[in-house]
Amino acid sequence: xxxxxxxxxxxxxxxxxxxxxxxxxxxxxxxxxxxxxxxxxxxxxxxxxxxxxxxxxxxxxxxxxxxxxxxxxxxxxxxxxxxxxxxxxxxxxxxxxxxxxxxxxxxxxxxxxxxxxxxxxxxxxxxxxxxxxxxxxxxxxxxxxxxxxxxxxxxxxxxxxxxxxxxxxxxxxxxxxxxxxxxxxxxxxxxxxxxxxxxxxxxxxxxxxxxxxxxxxxxxxxxxxxxxxxxxxxxxxxxxxxxxxxxxxxxxxxxxxxxxxxxxxxxxxxxxxxxxxxxxxxxxxxxxxxxxxxxxxxxxxxxxxxxxxxxxxxxxxxxxxxxxxxxxxxxxxxxxxxxxxxxxxxxxxxxxxxxxxxxxxxxxx
Length: 365
Ligand code: GN1
Ligand code: MG
Description:
By secondary structure, the chain is an alpha+beta fold. The protein has twelve helices and nine strands.
């Protein structure tokens, strides 16, 4: 079956009242394949939907992923009646997925919107901070026992380092000698990068329900007024730490460049973006965060940056089975970019911590 036939069958399977016309591939995301599908409804109107083929190498248990997403999206939708929200379609037997050979399909509403990979406009950044903060607050009363841990130990930095060490030992593609400098840096900052995991184990940081993949391109913005419309990509919603969401968002949004920029001179933390995101995020969450959560918020940006460098490098050494790549060195370029960013964060850590304190003080005033 070609892709048109497959997508037409998916529309049929999700009981869409109309005929599939065509698709456009959406080039965002490093793991799943996303299509914007156009359908001619039986009333004659054209309508778009979003269809995704889930990466089952990454998500070993896609049915559990969809059960999590169904519960979480409906919980959020119920809190904001009448507002734009992400929503998944069901098959005739009430499933939010269709399995067909190697393919695992899901289909959601398409929300007309704009997304950003790099943002300099501080109002947009602040709105992104608010959106992720609100997302977490919306789920504050969601029973985390209802969620499967779809990717176990996803943000366990200690385990990520241990896995990298195993991959280096095995060196399946003979690449380790090329990346010694990167490995030396990463293992030199290991203790500091594992602080959140250690504090969690010591019971000093609380588990919450978190998004766990808070790249700014996972926020949909209105094309008219740049308000945040919805947080998308709920594949990794699981119990996690507030710092996982805050830190990953900063890693991505506050970098001057995209996460795979080969020009390392251009990489660094944009402190204005850091401040704007922090203002928006804390405006929503400051009242509920513990002192230890606040004290480790700035550090979490460094932790998540190092963690991603570890994951990209691990994947590179294995021959890139996990992340989608556009060229053979792509994961190495990503690694180097994250390392350059982590180094710049180390230089700016005292300032980042001061900004968090200033934001908390002005919100609690
Ligand atoms: C993956 O596919 P995407 O872009 O939403 C990855 C994240 C990484 C990100 C890095 C399930 O997310 O953890 O931070 O790439 N998702 C998974 O760009 O591993
Ligand atoms: Mg994702």
